[in-house]
Design brief:
Blueprint lengths: L4 H4 L14 E5 L25 H13 L4 E5 L9 H10 L3 E6 L12 H7 L3 E5 L5 H8 L3 H14 L11 E5 L10 H16 L5 E4 L6 H9 L3 H10 L14 E4 L5 E2 L2 H6 L33 H4 L4 E2 L2 E2 L5
Parallel strand pairs: 1-2, 1-7, 2-3, 3-4, 4-5, 5-6
Antiparallel strand pairs: 7-8, 9-10
Amino acid sequence: MLNTLDRLRPSDFPTIRRARLRTLQVNLGYRCNQQCLHCHVAAGPKRTEVMESAIVDLVVENLRLLPFDTLDLTGGAPELNPEFRRLVEQARNLGVRVIDRCNLTILNEPGQQDLAAFLADQQVEIVASLPCYLEENVNRQRGKGVFDSSIRALEKLNSLGYGEAQGRLRLNLVYNPQGPSLPPPQSGLEADYRRILAENHGIRFNQLLALANLPIQRFGSTLLSLGQFDDYMKLLKQAHRDDNLDGVMCRSLVSADWQGYLFDCDFNQMLGLRIQTGDVQRPHLRDLPRLTLDENPILVADHCYGCTAGQGSSCGGALQGTV
């Protein structure tokens, strides 16, 4: 895989600083039952990196000690970590909102037949990858049979009460472009998703999150191999909007990798760009309670333009209602 870091630094991306921390985002490991072309984590079935129980204990301790209101769980498929359910239960017992970034097909895997019911019992918010409402496009990006499996998983979640407009079980879907382009306006795309999934499959969901693909890991390597990297970076920079800077996720989030080391965001984590702080050289979850991060400068590089281009992208979807 071709590394893009040297193409992303030095950068002229604007300086940004942290606001108040609200979200602890935790990558539970890179193992996944899928191997998607756009995956910025380069996850897959053969990856062996998995967060161990001692590090999970540190996650829980930080939730207990610090004023985080949200635990955002990522992978790979985070549900494949043997500690996933214990972590969810302990976080919910502390009154913390839990988000599971779910690839949907994991709900149909052997040994995971009760996973959807567990998530519903714990009132976990599901952010589910479904990069298109058309079978051909999803299977091209994520693998043969993924669309059908995803629909079956969504049906299972709907049967448990996920996706109801006034319900307590939130189900959000995630759209990624198929190639080196920006997402279309989120509101119009959401209307298309809602209409087509309802008409063709009877599926309901709460919100669509439109995310740009970042030029790192598999997607970045693909751009380099096809000679499209520079053009994509030009597109991102030309579409940059300063008014997206206040809403980027890194201002209120800290990201922990499977070993417990800390980063400004999940994308910096994949590039190995650790949080910069004078308190500790290699900040770790065990250090987090004594770190001074308020107003701390965030480490940026050119991939950050992927979060501020057009409508803007964050873990919560587009930052702007219009382009």
